[in-house]
Amino acid sequence: MKFSELSKSSQGEMIQLPLDITVRGLAFDSRQIAIQSGVVFFAISGQNHDGHQFINDAYEKGVRLFVIEREVKMKADASYFLVKDAIAAMQGMAKSQRSEFNYPVIGITGSNGKTIVKEWLAQMLDDQFDIVKSPKSYNSQLGVPLSVWAMGHHHNLGIFEAGISEVGEMERLERVIGPTLGIFTNIGEAHNAGFKDLSEKAMEKAKLFVHAQKVIYCASHDTLKQALTKTVSQTTQLIPWKIKEQKGKKYVLDVQEKELSFFLKYDDPASVENIMHCTAMLVVLGYDQEFIQLRLNRLSSVKMRLEMKQAINRSYVIDDTYNNDLYGLEVALDFLGRQNQRSKKTVILSDLYQTGLSSDALYQRVNELLQKNNIQKFIGVGNEINQSRACFHIPAKFYSSTQDLLESGYAPNDEIVLVKGARDFEFELIVNSLEQKAHGTILEVNLENLIHNLNYYRSKLAPETKIMVMVKALAYGGGNFEIANLLQFHKVDYLGVAYADEAVELRKNGIHIPIMIMNVSPASFRLLKEYNLEPEIYSLDQLIDFLDYYESMQDLPAIHIKLETGMNRLGFTESNLQRLIEQLKLNKQLKVKSIFSHLAGSEDPRHADYTKQQGERFERMSTTIMESLWYKPMRHIVNTGGIVNYPELHFDMVRLGIGLHGFDPTQTEQGKLKIVSALKCSVSQVKKIAAGESIGYGRSGFAKKDTTIAIIPIGYADGYLRAFGNGTGQMLVNDQLVPTIGNICMDMTMVDVTDVPVKSGDEVVVFGEKPNISELAEWIKTIPYEILTNVSQRVKRVFLSE
Prior knowledge:
By secondary structure, this protein is α/β, with parallel strands linked by helices. It has five domains: about 5-90, MurE/MurF, N-terminal domain (Udp-n-acetylmuramoylalanyl-d-glutamate--2,6- Diaminopimelate Ligase, Chain: A, domain 1), CATH 3.40.1390; about 100-295, 3-Layer(aba) Sandwich (UDP-N-acetylmuramoyl-L-alanine:D-glutamate ligase), CATH 3.40.1190.10; about 305-435, Protein-Tyrosine Phosphatase, Chain A, CATH 3.90.190; about 445-660, Alpha-Beta Barrel (TIM Barrel), CATH 3.20.20; about 675-800, Lyase, Ornithine Decarboxylase, Chain A, domain 1. About 30% of the residues lie in helices and about 20% in strands. The chain is built from 26 helices and 38 strands. The chain has an eight-stranded mixed sheet, sandwiched between helices. The chain has an eight-stranded parallel sheet with strand order 27-26-25-24-23-22-21-28. A six-stranded mixed sheet has the order 14-15-19-16-17-18, with helices on both faces. Helix 7 (about 200-205) links the parallel strand 9 (about 180-185) and strand 10 (about 215-220). Helix 3 (about 85-100) packs parallel to helix 5 (about 145-150), helix 3 packs parallel to helix 6 and helix 4 (about 115-125) packs across helix 9. It is globular. The two termini are about 30 Å apart. The mean pLDDT is about 90. This is Alanine racemase. It holds the Pfam family Ala_racemase_N. It is an enzyme of class 5 (isomerase). Its cofactor is pyridoxal 5'-phosphate.
């Protein structure tokens, strides 16, 4: 849609339109804007937030399209659309986007389990469909349109969740999602405050399915049946399911007049209900018992809020500091009840919100749950729970605030502690105080900086130019799934990997955007179709092997043709082109998605003439191929260095690699990028070494004088190479660079801290802002790529995001 067409989907007035361009993205948080032509920033006014205050921030990040709720000081080259309700305008645009597609869309609502059902359903169907789904738990009035906007022509199934907190909200979300199929998970007391009772809440949630063809629900929830019967269209088929029989982990499911037996790997009540919703949906979609069981066998747990960690004094802490509704407390107590590491169990709980119950009724219910689950000690935090202390009949203590609890000196002893509270209580401070500290080596990956770098390179591109991001080798050491997931959310067009197994792991972890594989062996051909992967084809022999493998198929995986233009690695030479063209003409079922090549020296101005020769050769060779085809594939040749230095060679797509991680190989744009990764650890021990004593293996390090050394828990097995030994490498300790001394060990490194005040536990920066990867590379005469990709998989990755 063009920005000028906004009035078709939203009521409002265009008050300035200097340039009419295609809408490519929606944003309401200026911190998370992906710079590209066509992003619309919605200035949303709320009780604690006014998006109009961030219009300039969005403008500085490249946004030129704005939806506003009141007139503001306008930039001359920006377009403004004035509306009464910016959220409604966003929903209107998403509804328009939804109307462009007619593939099935599954809508999910209910009080609990929406996100897990969505994620598990996607896991079970990810090799059958190209799925677009809500990221994380994006189910609100804002989250739903952002999710639906991601729908594309390369998808063939949508899965979106919808949550509401008051009457009237679901009609708006139904118009955006337009589900053809539905799952109503359950109805409970979470977010009760906006409804008179459970019946009204069920009726409101059921409005998501008013035009759906089929809706699945658990037969034991009578409230759901009543709400659906009164709400949905007469043409909507209601499909209840129930568990007919259970023996151990074997369950017999009764759905659509069928009785099907399944073995479940997760057998807690909440998981069983969530799994059965997914299973019933697969039955409705026409899959048989054998297929469904195979999918159930491979289900992996969804990373949610409950995490059990080792704590001080031989204890454990269960971290559930995400929310504090009553149903969630039941789930957490069930989880606590299944932990047998310690017999003594304690619950720390904050005030509960939006339950719809009076304080006395609420905390009497909490007391009953605690007694039922054999909790020996209770700690309540908050004014409301403190005032209701008479409701509790087990040993209990109460504090007005989290700080009061922390200052009390509370410490568990041989027990398991459930910590559950609302975000505004900052219960993570309690978890941090109880958690057993481990001084391990970690690689911090700053996701905010990574997106900043992505946006910077996007700003170098024409609006129509696509972007492929290389995520091979664990995304240059940073962690491929986590980074790929973020890139997918920020709408990159393609991902590139080196080998098929890297791509398969991405698919298994929910990555659905196109993936190009740069080196595919015949042994990997079987994976391409199954996981919707696109291989690079670089020789006639490889192409013939590929065609022979898929000889009996009409629907082949799409391919990317690699040309040799001067890198002298893989690729078709100019002398091979006619034979390549003959094969393409003989096999018209084969789709060429792109034609591409590699630049050998795009980052170095000394090779400018050679790079231009490569570009000319690529233009000539790719044109020859395209003239023989009946369609136009994409073309791409530039890497990170080429994005900056050769805009004339951007063609249809560019490939971004090391620049994403904050390193500019051209060294001309470095100041505009942000450092993404920091390798850190802590001092294990500090000791005095007398003059003349040797240090480490091989006795290559000697103390020339009385010396203080610090032992750092990182070695060549972690990726800190032996080449950094004997003073070649330096680390940052207490803001001072200190040299290595002696050889690097497999798991440890010694540094000279004679002139630096250091103690055990002090933080050590191996690389980050200072020293940076360019400096480390220079010290050992290598390149920054090698520094990043050498970081071992055993090093824990910690992802930072504001």
